[in-house]
Amino acid sequence: MERKFDFIGKRYIAYFLSFLLIAGSWFYGAFIKGAKFGIDFTGGALVQVKIEDKNVNTETLRQLFKGKVEGVTVQNIETANEFLIKAPVKGDPNKTVESVTKTIKEKFNGKAEIRRVEMIGPTVGKELREKGIMALIYAMIGILLYVAWRFEAIFAFGAVLALFHDTLATTGIFMAVGREFSLPVIAALLTVIGYSINDTIVVYDRIRENMKVLLRSKPFEEIVNESINQTLSRTIITSLTTFFVVLCLYIFGGGVINDFAFVLLVGIIVGTYSSIFIASAIVVDWYKRVKKVK
């Protein structure tokens, strides 16, 4: 006899765990550590430099820029002698970059190699931040309309709430570990939304097929639980294979796409969890509420 797990029966435990995860990560990330935004959103200059001197570290560079370039942050990446130097821009970004590179070259002479330079003005940064948020909102609306058309409004409601859950949980964890929001992070969040809804639609499709056959003989809650169990192996196998591919990207991809890969790793875990425990459970609770009203 096939063993089945009562996912729907444990839905209130799942709701509580999700609340703890989202509330805890957001409180710690947003209010204790503080949300961090990269130069994509705040405007600024970024210089990636490789310095052939083992005695140089992040603190050495911070001290170097004191009194010369204001608000500089230094981050060590990939290897011990490669650094990301970020500086806010108040006027012309070119002047900020020039000040940073000039200071480095004067100090280290031929030992420093400038490997990457990025510049974004404050106005452009604000515009990119607003467009990134709107992209997430439009994605949610598009998914809501598609699922409502493809299935029913009740399923669309569950799918979008589950996507809000995934987005909030992923961004909360991202903030809690002290990483910076940037355009690649927004791209990763959109990817997570697309990945999560794919898993959810597979479960919803099975629920719809089973409803055609079993709705007269079984309670809706039991049909949903059976559908989740029937698609469970597919969901887990797909998620694991994707997870290991992204894990390789995270480990070997380098500093440029590290944040992107990190968001995907967290999003795959959270999205798989919500597809199994949250999305269909919301449909069950909403279905019961509608039946009571009728």
Could you explain the architecture of this structure?
With 294 residues, the chain is an alpha+beta fold. It has two domains: 11-37 and 125-293, Multidrug efflux transporter AcrB transmembrane domain (Multidrug efflux transporter AcrB transmembrane fold); 44-120, Alpha-Beta Plaits, CATH 3.30.70. The chain is 70% helix and 11% strand. It has helices at 11-34, 39-42, 58-65, 93-108, 122-150, 153-176, 183-214, 220-252, 258-277, 279-293, and strands at residues 36-37, 44-51, 73-76, 82-87, 112-120, 180-181. The strands form two sheets. It has a four-stranded antiparallel beta sheet with strand order 3-4-2-5. Helix 5 runs parallel beside helix 7, helix 6 (153-176) packs across helix 9 (258-277) and helix 6 packs across helix 10 (279-293). The chain is elongated. The two termini are 37 Å apart. The mean pLDDT is 85.
Summarize the structure.
The protein has 294 residues and is α+β, with helices and mostly antiparallel strands. It has helices spanning 11-34, 39-42, 58-65, 93-108, 122-150, 153-176, 183-214, 220-252, 258-277, 279-293, and strands at 36-37, 44-51, 73-76, 82-87, 112-120, 180-181.
